[in-house]
Amino acid sequence: MPNPKVEIAFDLSANGLGDFFTLDDTTKGLLDGTAFKLAGDILQDVTSYTRAITIRRGRSRQLDRFTAGAATITLDNRARTFDPLAGTALTPYAGQIVPRKEVAVSVSGVPIFTGQVEDWDLNYSLSGDSVAEAVCADGFALIAQDTLAGSATTSQLTGARIGSVLTALGWPIGKRAIGTGEATLIADTIAAETNGLQYLQKVEASEPGAFFVNRAGSMTFRDRQDTQVFGGVTFADDGSGIPYQGIEVLYGTEELYTATVVTRNNGTAAVGTATASNATAQAAYGITTLNVDTLLSSDAQAEDLADYLLGKYQAPTYRVDALDVILEGITASQAGQVLALDLADVVKVTFTPNSIGDPIEQYALVDGIEHNITPNAHQIRLTLSATEVGFVLDSEQFGVLDSNILGF
What we know:
This protein is mainly β. The protein has four domains: 4-138, no CATH class; 146-224; 231-247 and 318-386, Elongation Factor Tu (Ef-tu), domain 3; 259-313, no CATH class. It has six helices and 25 strands. It has helices at 140-143, 158-168, 196-206, 279-285, 299-313, 332-340; strands at residues 4-10, 42-45, 50-58, 67-76, 102-107, 110-123, 131-137, 147-148, 151-152, 156-157, 176-178, 184-185, 189-190, 194-195, 210-213, 219-222, 230-236, 246-251, 259-266, 269-277, 289-294, 318-326, 346-351, 360-374, 377-386. The strands form six sheets. Strands 1, 2, 3, 4, 5, 6, 7, 17, 18, 22, 23, 24 and 25 form a 13-stranded mixed beta sheet that branches. A three-stranded mixed beta sheet has the order 11-16-15, with helices on one face. A hairpin with a 2-residue loop joins strand 19 (259-266) and strand 20. The longest helix has 15 residues, at 299-313. Mean pLDDT is 89; it is low at 15-30, 35-39 and 391-405.
């Protein structure tokens, strides 16, 4: 079974513990040395105290915005190791059990969550079997509380706009994975006190792409071309891919829209609108309208986006909504593939209901990832939405003329 590792950043030097760089010490004070680190918050391994881990990242469906990833780490607190009021005689972390400590969770060296502690919840039992829960969130929780100063932008691609906004919000360059983008945005006027996350999500909708915090803690933007590329991971119930334990399929109106309206904005003012509709679909399913606010620079781009969204959502789709994988039931190689998946990856799912009839094959976008980890089991749930893989030149599988669509 792959082993989880939980680390929380504490400053052990504050309590006179640990081996750190010490000025004027003949051993610990050597300049350019690597054995003794500067004191301060350093990730400390608390795996031996960990009883359970739950992680939820992503969104419920493709038309939703990604939300802040969340994790709850349940720690053995019988000895008051994680009690904020316990002194140095009881815990090496005395004075360090406070919010906003960095957290990193990995499995077999693969990061699955990176963020910070938002709350310490202490559950004491009269029996003495007590636990502390570190309730954590990723970087979205930080930028969601930040606002932008009033400014004027130049016309630029979506990736460049996201980069400039992250810089204005003070997000570190080293913790970014930003794609170039395909859509060109208007030279926008950003009003003072504009919420940083909400603005970035409007850029995301203008692409449309995927903006989220990845499993290693980096702000990530995948443009619409990136989200149409198959990553090679296949789940199957016939032995041709990674086996799964449960699967959920939806066929209905959850993502059914027979008309689309795409609005172009500059600041808070609308500067253009494009619409698209399908009379046949409206006669069959009624009039349901998808409204999208964007920062696109031209009416032509807005019209293309309205047409694309209508084509994608004008009819109900039979789609795999979720599947569950138990790491203990698959090979180490397969577990590595599943753990390496991130939001907005494209996977392939093969499913033969009740082993009757021909297999159903579907490419799906990963919308959400959940981990439930206990000492005896590690279950991963993937929330999915149907997607299409764009035409790939010279590809045996995706380069067939009149078979694969051109990417939008």
